[in-house]
Amino acid sequence: MEIINSINKFYYELSIQELKLMSQNEQYNKMSHNTMLYLNIISCKENCTVSMLAEILNITKSAVTIKVNELVAKGYLKKIQSETDKRIYYIKLSDSMQNIFDDYDNFIYRTFDKIKNMYNEEQINNFCEIMNFISEKASEEN
């Protein structure tokens, strides 16, 4: 089926770009795949907490706490205390890790700039609608 091949090719190309970025950065190239997945999730979730991660991943808070503390110790993440509820700590990428992610995002932004020049607004909106549908269905599977 053409759509599955297209999605697989898209994922493949993104994976290659991420691996290239990893090999160019000393901090990033020492990471496990599991660590990269945690960082990707945290980078996408605003006001991410240990509880939120545990719920998303369907694992215990203690398991997430151990992993988060490991990533904080390595300098990949930072914890920021909530201003409104001092019991809550938000998890964010460290500044150096955010810079690495920004470099990766620049590749995506350049690609999307090309898309904007090749397709009209309706086509882009249809594409976004399809991608959102796929994301929602993937989320429902969990």
Descriptive account of the structure:
The chain has helices at residues 2-24, 33-44, 50-57, 61-73, 95-118, 121-141; strands spanning 77-81, 89-93. The chain has 142 residues and is mostly helical. The chain has a domain at 32-93: Arc Repressor Mutant, subunit A (Orthogonal Bundle), CATH 1.10.10.10. The longest helix is centred in the C-terminal third of the chain and has 24 residues, at 95-118. It is globular and about 45 Å long. The model has no long low-confidence stretch (mean pLDDT 89).
Q: How is this fold's topology laid out?
A:
Blueprint: H1 2-24, H2 33-44, H3 50-57, H4 61-73, E1 77-81, E2 89-93, H5 95-118, H6 121-141
Antiparallel strand pairs: 1-2
Helix pairs in contact: 3-4
